[in-house]
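User: I'm writing a tutorial on reading structure tokens. Could you give me a worked example: one chain, its sequence, then its tokens, then a sentence or two explaining what the tokens reveal?
Assistant: Sure. Here is the example chain.
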Amino acid sequence: MLENGLHLSPAAQIVKTAQAYRSTLVIQKGDRKIDGKSMLDLMTLAAEHGAKLRLETTGEDAEAALQAVSALFARNFDHDAAAGKPAG
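And here are its predicted structure tokens:
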């Protein structure tokens, strides 16, 4: 889990990953929905530590896009490896 919430580095990873697909990516926090391919939208989402986010993809490669972005969250955006901490 990201201790500082969805900050610049993980947001950049989401945008880069999402932009590799033709599908749209919508990220929802509460009642607010944003374009997951927009760095500005992600930064203004203010997804703090522990925030619940919903990912939604639509388009021809939607399933692959969803899996790729979900994998970033599942591996904590490689935060533990970058911090020199053992995974797990």
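What the tokens reveal: The mean pLDDT is 88. The first strand starts at residue 24 and ends at 29.
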